[in-house]
Amino acid sequence: MRFEGQTVIVTGAARGIGAATALRLAREGARVAVLDLVLDAAQSTATSITADPVVVSAGGSAVGLAADMTDSQAVDAAFSAFAEAEGRLDVLVNNAGLTRDDLLFRMSPDDWDLVLRTNLSSAFHGIRSAQRWMTPAMSGAIVSLSSRSALGARGQANYAAAKAGIQALTATAAIELGPFGIRVNAVAPGYIATAMTAATASRVGMTATDHQDRAALATPLRRVGEPEEVASVIAFLASRDASYVSGQTLYINGGAR
Question: Domain for residue 130, yes or no?
Answer without folding.
Answer: yes
